[in-house]
Structure formats: C-alpha cells, structure tokens
Model the fold of this input.
Amino acid sequence: MNLSQLPLLEQAIFVLAALVVLTSFSQLAQTRLTASIHSFAWQGAMVAMVTVLVATASGIPHLYLSALLTLSLKSLLIPWMLHRLVRRLNMEREVETISHPALMVLAGTGLVIFSYWVALPIERLELAATRNVVAVSLSVVLLGLWMMVARRRVVAQVLGFMSMENGLFLAAVASTRGMPLVVELGVAFDVLVAAVLFGVFFFHISESIDSLDVDRLNRLTSLDVKDHQAREETS
Amino acid sequence: MTSPAFVPLAITVFTPLLGMGLLAVVRTLSLAGWLNLGLVIIEFSASLVLAYDVAQGGEFIAHSFHIDAFNVYLVVLTTFVGLTTAIFSRPYMVEVCEQGHITSRRMRLYHSMFQGFQFTMLLALTTDNLGILWVAVEGATLVTVLLVSLYRTPESVEAAWKYFILCGVGIALALFGTVLVYFAAQQVLSDPEQGLTWSTLYTQAANLDLAVMRIAFVFLIVGYGTKVGLVPMHFWLPDAHSEGPTPVSAVLSGLLLNVALYAVVRFKMLTDGALADSLSPNTAGYLMMAFGLVSFSVAVLSLQRQRDIKRMFSYSSIEHMGLMTFAFGIGGPLATFAALLHMLVHSLTKSAIFVTVGHASHIAGTQSIEHIRGLIRTQPGVGWGLLLGVAAIAGFPPFGIFTSEFLILSATMQLWPWLTLLLLIGLVVAFAGLFRNLHPMVYGAIPDGQVPVKANMFPVVVHLFLVLWLGLAIPAFLSSWLDEVTRLISGKGLL
Amino acid sequence: MGDFVSPAGWAIAMVQALLFMLGAPLLAGWVKRIKSRLQNRRGPGLLQPYRDLYKLFGKEALVAHSASPLFRAAPYIVFGSTLIAVAVIPLLAVSLPTAAVADMIVLVGFLALARFFLALAGMDVGTAFGGMGASREMLVSALAEPAMLMAVFTLAMSAHSTNLSSVIQFNLDAGLVLRPSFMFALLGLILVAMAETGRIPVDNPATHLELTMLHEAMILEYSGRHLALMEWAAQLKFMLYGVLIANLFFPWGIATQLSLPALALGLLSIITKLMLLGLLVAVAETVLAKMRLFRAPQYLNLAFLLTLLGLFSHVILETSA
Done:
C-alpha cells in the first residue's frame, strides 16, 4: 500500500491525524494555560473533522452526529468551561514553570515511538491503513497520560485527561468506523459529567488547599498517613 | 426472549435509576433514608426473582442485556449488600448529619448517588454490550467520586481527586482495549454492529485476531485492573476507601471491586477463546496471575505499616482482590470455583468490617489505630464484631474465607507448587499484621471518656453469620450455582 | 536525464546560475519593498540592492591591522561556496547536468562551509561584537541543522534518494498527494529557513543595534567589495532557501524538458512562487516580533519537533509493514 494509491479522503485523514499529534505536543509543552486550552479546542475540532471525513468515506450517517457531538463538546463546551474556571480562579496570567520542556517533548517523542511499536503487530494487509491510525491514536492517549503525570497544575491534568479521550475517540472512529451510537452517546455523557465534576473539584481544591498545584495535594501519602488526631488538632 | 425474566431484570436495574432521580428531590432526611431503604428492598427482591428465573430458564439475552449464571449471582450479591448497607446507613447518616459533618442538603446528594451507584453497578453487571459496560463503570467512578468527597474535608477532596484522576486514566486505557476488541470483532463478524455484544463475541471468539486480542487484553487488564486495585495501579484505593463516609467505604470495598473483576474475567474468557489455538494460549491467565500475585505481596507488606484503621483494611481488600485475580488467572475448575466463592465471602466480610470500623472510629473519635482502644469493654457489640470480622478476613476456620483460601491453595499446589509457599507466607504475614493491630484496639486499656455510641450492628451480624454458614456448609443450591458459573468460565465444572 | 548531458543542458545550467546571481538582490528588494508598504512607508525602490552593491564594489576595502589573511579570503570563500550551492539547485528545469551534484546533504555541507568561514571572519579581527555575532550564529545553526537534516531525511525517505532533482521529479510524478510528513517537513523547513537566513523572529536584518545583531555583527568590520560580496552571499542564501521550499514542495511548473516553452513556463512559475514567498516573509516579519536570543533554542526545538514528527508520520502513517 502506497500513500499515493489511497483516495484523497484517506490521505486527508492521515494529515489530520498527524496534526492531532502535533496539538498533543503543543498542549504538553505550553506553559500558558489559555494557550493549552486553545490547542485542546483545535484538537477536538480536528478529531471532529476526521469523523466527518470517515463518515463521508464510509457512508455511515450516525458518524455525522458523533462529529457534531465531538465538536460541540470537546471543541466548544469544555474549553469554554475551562476558560471560565481559569478566569474565575484568576489563573489567566499564571505561567507554570515546566522544569525541562525539551525533555518533556523528547519523552513525548519516545512515547510516539513506543505506541508505534505496540501497534506493529496489528498488521493485516487490507488493514494497514488502520494500523497506522491506531498507532497515532495510541500515541495521543499516551501523550495525554504523560501530560497528566508531568504537569503540576490541576487544569493541565484535566486537559491531559480530556485529550486522552480525544485519542480514544480518534481510535474508535478511524479504525472501527465509530462505535454504535448508543455507546458514543454514553461516552460523551460520561465525559461531560466528568468535566462538570472537574469544575466542581477545582473550587473545592482551591478552597481547601488554596492552590491548584497538585504538589500541594500531599496530605495523604501512599504508605504513612499523618494521624487523624493530629489533623483534627490542626484543622 | 423469555419475557418472564425481563420484568424482574428491568425492575432490578431501573429502580435505582428512578430512585436516583427521586431522591434528588426529596428534601426530608428521614423520608429519604426510608425511601432509599424501600428502593433497595424492591431491588433485592427483584434480583431474587431474576435469579430464580435464570435458574429455571437458563441464560437470558434480550434488549442488549445478558444474564447468565455468572452475573446474576453478582447481581444478587450487589443488591443484598446494598440492602444491608442501606439498613445501616439510614440511622447512621442521620447521626452524622446531626453531628454537623454534613449539611442536610448534601444528604440529598448522598442518597441520590447511593441509588445512582447501585444503578451503574447493576447496569455494568447485566449489560450485553462492551461499550455500555465501559460507560457504566465510568459512571460508577464518577458517582463514587462525589460520594468519597462528601464530607468536603481537604483530605477527602484530595482522596477523591486522586481517585478521579487515577481511575479516569485506567478507564481510558480500558476503553482503548474495548475499541481494539471491537476492531478485531469487525473483521470477522458478518454484522459489524454486533461487534460489541458479549453473546456474539463468545461464539466467534476463536476467529478473533490473535495479535489484536493480546494487545487489547493488556490494555483491558491494566485499565479495569486499576479499578480492581491491582498493583501498581492501586494508589487511589487506600485513600478513597478511607476518606468517604462509612457506608460508602463498605460498598466500595464490597461491591465495586467485584464489578471490575467481573469485567476482567469476562474479557479473560474472551481472550482465552481467541488465543486457544495459538502458541501461547495462556497469556491472559499468566498476566492475571502476575498482577494478582504482585498485588497480593505488595498489599500484605504495606498492611504492616498502616496507622489508619480504614487504610489497613483497604490494603486487605487489595490483598484479597489480588488473590482472586491470581486464582482466576490460574484457571481450571478448582481455582475458578474458589475464586467465585471468595468473591462472595470477601464482599460480605469486608463490608461488615467497614461498618464495624465506622462504629469503632466513631467511639474513639479518630481513625488512627494508636488511639482506638478497649472496644470490647466500651461496647461489646462493636468489639466482638471487629474481632470476629478480622478473624474472618484473616482466614480463620470456620469462616468462609478459610474455605475459599484453602481451595485456592490446593489449586495452586496442583499447578504451581512453589507459589503456594509464597501465598502461605503472605497469608501468615497478613494475619500477623491484622492481629497485631487488632489486639490493642479490642482489648487495650480504655481511654478516658470513651462512651458507647448508638450502633447498628445488624448488617454485621447478618453478614458474618452468612460467612460462617458458608464456611461450615455451603448449601447445595449455591454450590451447584457456583459450579455452573465455573463451567461457564473455565469450561469444566468442579463437582 | 540522458539528453540533458548536452551542450544545451550545460548552457541552461549556466543561465540558471546567472539568474540566481542576478535575481537574488531583486528578491531582497521585493521583500523590503513590501515590508515598507505594510509599514505605511514608501520604502526604497525595487532595484535599490543593485545600486547598493554597485556602490560598494566601487569603494575602498579597509582592513584592520589585526586582520589575518583569512579576513581577506573569507568573503570570496563565502560567496564562492554559496554560489556553488546555488548553482546546482534546480531553478528552471529538473534534470540538468549539474543535478548529479545536487545532493541535499552536499548542499547543507556547502552552506555549513560558508557559515564556518563567516563565523571565523567575524572573530578574526578580535572585536567584541564580531565574537558575539559568531557565537550567536553558531548557536542558531547548531540547533537548526538537525532540523534541516530531519526535513531532508523525511523527503529522502519518500523519494528514496537525497538528490534534489530526484525528489522534485518524484513529487511531480506523484501528483496531488497529501502527505503529513511533507507538511511537517515544510513547516519545519520554513522555521529553519527563517532562522538560517537571519529573518525576524530570529534576527532582524534591518537592525542598527549591535546587541541585537546576529548576521550583521559578523560582517561589521567589512567594507567595500568585501562587504558587497558578503551582502550578496546573504541574498543568495535567502533566494536559495526560497527556491528550495518552492520547488521541493510545490514543484508544478518546473520544466522537465529542455524546450523553450517549458523553460519559459519554468521561469514564470518560479518567479511567481518566489514573489509569493517574499510576500509571506514580509508579512511574517511585520506581524512577528524578534525573539530574545534565549528563546531561539525553543523556536528551533519547535522546528526540530515538527520535522521529527514529519519523519514519524512518514514511518507510521505512510509506509506499510
């Protein structure tokens, strides 16, 4: 299979998939939260575009609905909610100091290579196009995971989580032509509820711990716990 | 479609959904408590009728629900533990509300989410669709996040956040595994839309692509395994189980872990079918054994250092879930039967323990082990409950856990003799750790000013009695039921 | 390629080199003109760079006492190697005799040679600004070169050759194919080109403040014909990158035969493409601000990341097992 032998639509899907990975990287290395949120919105828009292209190529009508859902949820609603939160919590001007952005990006490229290796065994000749997008979507998932691990701000962790969902959606759309509508509605609903809960939690965390830096979420460490009584004394 | 079974099914699954909505608007706390109880009674009775229908009529598949012996047994267990916990929680939460830990407005959230939790778990257990299973498990996570952070203390908020993030990540990986399974199914099924239904997938399991299924299972065990509490994805568990209100800890430990393990076992059945003719047919089993063994060992060791009583018992949950995963991984009729029995008795025992621990920390005013003392003299009910509960969970005969652990050890001895040694050492170390902490808590000198509290030990008594009964003599219908499930999972019956 | 190794082919090749030499100042003037217009100024005329070069060639070349022979030789070396590099790039037609030497890595090597002597010349006289300019230039190019090579490799992996005319021929034959790897390579190459040719956001070509200079700091000591050669070499380099981007990624219009109409079409298409690129550069320079030098590594890391992603896209998305 040669790229030039594929129809133009499939080529466009590949281009968009590659751009989605680029937005993942840009979210990863951005220090300013509003810029990260914009990258995330673009990512959602591109995943929605991939869905539309797949819908056109395969003629499955409910994918148009999924595309609309993704666009409105991931590209408009959730970034808007995050923006509102960022403004309300006065985090607009904050710049998160990433210790070594170059190292983070390098680790990200390592993850891309790793996901390609994981997806290698999925190789049937007529499915070769799919294997490629599976590798790309797995790398988006892993990059989202890496973002959750490596970034210190709570909003950045939420963005990582949401971009993992974007990667999963891309995998579902491009390799299996979308999951049944019921499942996709359920997933979208879950994502929405999760976003709402995240918002609720931001307030609680910032109220109780007075910071949205997850390094400060350290009262419960994994093995030893400070005495409950000691806590009661201080609180 | 056998319509008699559908009605109790619908009642069991959809009553909690209705209840969730209803309890969100009921304002009076006492009314909400009774309503919650009433709803759970309805659910339990309906599940019993459903179980009876399945026992008579066999497997039941309709409207993308799939009930067979495996999940109906878990459905009954879920509604039963839900029932006893609701009985306990009704007066308990009133007390908590009066003490000012929580506003009566948030009690509405509690009751509504309690029903919501039941709904998501029952949906996950009974659905025929892999995607809906995922949605339900994610829904259960979201609901319990709200429940864990109910008291809004900084620690509970932090615990809920950690829970949210870690389980969210795990669930996302499980979704990737589900997509891969769907992808493999689409290549072989004539009707690709059916690619997400268990019933169709089982029949076509042998045709699914090996490489894809192998990769998918890795993602699925890591993903759903996060919710089971397998090491190294377990970091959310001790925090989440210790920070929520007591009834929530009871249902989390007793029920949600089971549902996640159910998902893993279902996928193992599928993967085994797919890999049956390959060079490495036991990949899924080995993975489960590895994860289970590591979880068991790490939990047993971590148990020793805990200073908070609920965290100690959470690590005990991880230990037992690891043991169950290990047993399911070994496969074969003996180990599978043992693991199923263990699921049952562990749920009952652990929820009873958490209820007792709730009372104990109430009496002592703290959850710190150092500061809980002399329970048996202050309030013999709680003291004895804790003593017997710990004896049960540590695997003392004649309690049921002894039986299941014995069976697991026998199965291990047959196939993997050297691992038996490891398991035995682990069990002894866990036992030592639990009792070392238990002894001063129950028998130590009573601190000044410790008074008994209003305690509802009813669910504890019922659960421990059941566990004792199951340890002494498993009733015939239950053992034949478990045998049927064993046949379903491992292909051969035990009895 | 057979009929091109002919006197006609060689003649076209020499015409190409001449076009480059003569066209480079025009391109520089075009960019400057558009920039001034965008800034609401009338700006210098289109032919002003020619007048400047002519003027400089006529002036006396002053050389400092402390300058070594390298100082006098450097302008010729720099101009010479840039000219050789430029001469082999397909401007009008694809398969000329010079195309055999037109390997992308050789090209990078020629440019590196020019840069090396430029930096040495900057340090030669011993002034502070010269040394500063040399070290800055080396920083930028040390980071830009991996990105450039990545882009080269990405292109080479698709076309199975590092020869420029093979790549252009491959692109022409393939028709309209949307390759993510080429897209990323293009973006990365554009960023690298902006850095290497000393344009905003890396370096301001019109600055008078020595502390903000990169390229100009190195040629601060030159005058007369030496300065003329250095300036001309810089203009040639800019045109080189422009032609590279235009013909590698958008090769339509380039002549594949040595007939007059094909060559005329080739000339017309390259002029159009360069005019467009010049416009884009001018707009970018007006819209963007010059970065702090310490941010230049980040910018170049972005370029490297883009080209690396291009390579990954090629391996992951565009090849089968």
About this structure: Chain B has a mean pLDDT of 88. The first helix of chain B runs from residue 3 to 25.
